């Protein structure tokens, strides 16, 4: 189902079951809001709405009571809903019964997150980790779905019934595929450096947006990539829906990357897949940590994001800007606005209204060394690597051949100059005559 393109969009509805006695550290409404944000991250989906369903307990056969099941069925039919996303765990039996009763496709929270990860996985490792997590998920559902058949049969299990034979075959096929994937993953991880070719093909600085799933990253991404100040000199085609090339006011071209949103209470079997889908963050020259500053749990969310960045191995040497988003939801005298104004690494914005975006763009330019200088540099005839890089970077304004090599006229930032100098062959060591 994932990866639906530009055709008809599927109508989806999000349900958050609020079961009495479950951990109530976060409100059901906040969790539904996160579930809706996840649904909006699915391609080819139109979200028709969402609701919290309060339950004294989960019903084993249908999750919800029969009256609620009927009420929801009528609503889904009236609104022509084709996909129901349940923000919580759903057993295979519950899924089968509800799909049959409502005439819809149903995904639980883990299935939904897997769909998003599959759509966002860029690197070879990311794709493999998502496939592995999906197989692990399928295997647990397969086992649970068939246990009633295994229980029906007595004996020692030497003579399996048809259901048992099928489940064993399916299980073995999944296990074999998982072993194959793990072997491939081991090779990929060993040669990780070789799998960064995509980054090297785009020699422009990468700016990665990270943040919680409902922090407004995608709104900010769309606003920045659609802003006239950035798009006035679009040299490149769109790389894919989550990576765009933009030109900062000072003339510096950058790749803006919108990463998959961070998620609370991530199912454990999805942690490795989640980290692998964030692999592009490891290549970033600048990280924009987008925070929903109006959210009651903004501090806890920020700490979660920083913890995952540390675990990914993103060091303090990578430039960071904290983007405090949704300031349109704060009162004008909120103390946090004064705090943001005093800190260079914090920019307060509203991705919705555009407030603060010029300051953010200026701060991005400062962090990446957007100010450029025109210089003439001489390189030897053998410095093909440095010359090719300069042309790929788009900084060469002129070239002249001289007896000792080439004179390049370049317009570059301090950062580009440093990179160029690392590509030049070091001079041969001086030889000293021995006495």
From TrEMBL:
Q: Does the keyword Nucleotide-binding apply?
A: yes
User: Which keywords does this Swiss-Prot/TrEMBL entry list?
Assistant: Cytoplasm, GTP-binding, Magnesium, Metal-binding, Nucleotide-binding
| Residue ranges constituting the Hflx-type G domain according to the UniProt record | 205-372
* A cellular-component GO term for this protein: cytoplasm
Intracellular or extracellular location(s): Cytoplasm
What is the annotated quaternary arrangement, including any partners?
Answer: Monomer. Associates with the 50S ribosomal subunit.
- Identify this protein by name: GTPase HflX
């Amino acid at each position: 189902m994932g990866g639906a393109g530009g055709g008809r969009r599927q109508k989806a509805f999000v349900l958050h079951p609020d079961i009495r006695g479950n951990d109530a550290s976060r409100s059901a409404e906040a969790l539904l809001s996160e579930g809706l944000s996840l649904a909006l991250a699915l391609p080819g989906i139109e979200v028709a709405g969402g609701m919290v369903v309060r339950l004294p307990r989960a019903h084993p056969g249908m999750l919800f009571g029969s009256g609620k099941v009927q009420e929801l069925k009528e609503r889904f039919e009236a609104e022509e809903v084709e996909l129901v996303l349940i923000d919580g765990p759903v057993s295979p039996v519950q899924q089968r019964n509800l799909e049959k009763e409502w005439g819809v496709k149903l995904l639980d929270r883990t299935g939904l997150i897997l769909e998003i990860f599959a759509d966002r996985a860029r690197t070879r490792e990311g794709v493999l980790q998502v496939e592995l997590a999906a197989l692990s998920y399928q295997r647990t559902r397969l086992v649970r779905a068939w246990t009633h058949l295994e229980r029906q049969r007595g004996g020692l299990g030497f003579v399996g019934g048809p259901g048992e034979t099928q489940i064993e075959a399916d299980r073995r096929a999944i296990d074999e595929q998982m072993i194959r994937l793990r072997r491939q993953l081991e090779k990929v991880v060993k040669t990780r450096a070789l799998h960064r070719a995509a980054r090297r093909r785009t020699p422009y600085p990468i700016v990665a947006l990270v943040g919680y799933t409902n922090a407004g990253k995608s709104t900010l991404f769309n606003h920045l990539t659609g802003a006239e100040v950035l798009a006035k000199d679009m040299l490149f085609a769109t790389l894919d829906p989550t990576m765009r090339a933009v030109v900062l006011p000072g003339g510096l071209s950058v790749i803006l990357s919108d990463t998959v949103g961070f998620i609370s209470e991530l199912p454990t079997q999805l942690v490795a897949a989640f980290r692998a889908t964030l692999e592009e963050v490891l290549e970033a020259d600048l990280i924009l940590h987008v925070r929903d500053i109006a959210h009651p749990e903004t501090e806890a969310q920020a700490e979660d994001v920083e913890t995952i960045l540390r675990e990914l191995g993103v060091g303090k040497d990578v430039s960071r800007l904290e983007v405090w988003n949704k300031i349109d939801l704060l009162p004008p005298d909120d103390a946090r606005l004064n705090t943001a104004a005093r800190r260079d690494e914090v920019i307060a914005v509203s991705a919705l209204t555009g407030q603060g975006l010029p300051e953010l763009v200026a701060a991005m330019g400062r962090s990446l060394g957007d100010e450029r200088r025109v210089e003439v540099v001489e390189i030897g005839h053998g410095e093909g690597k440095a010359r090719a890089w300069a042309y790929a970077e788009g900084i060469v304004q002129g070239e002249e051949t001289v007896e000792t090599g080439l004179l390049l006229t370049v317009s570059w930032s301090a950062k580009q100059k440093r990179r160029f100098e690392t590509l030049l062959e070091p001079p041969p060591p001086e030889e000293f005559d021995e006495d």
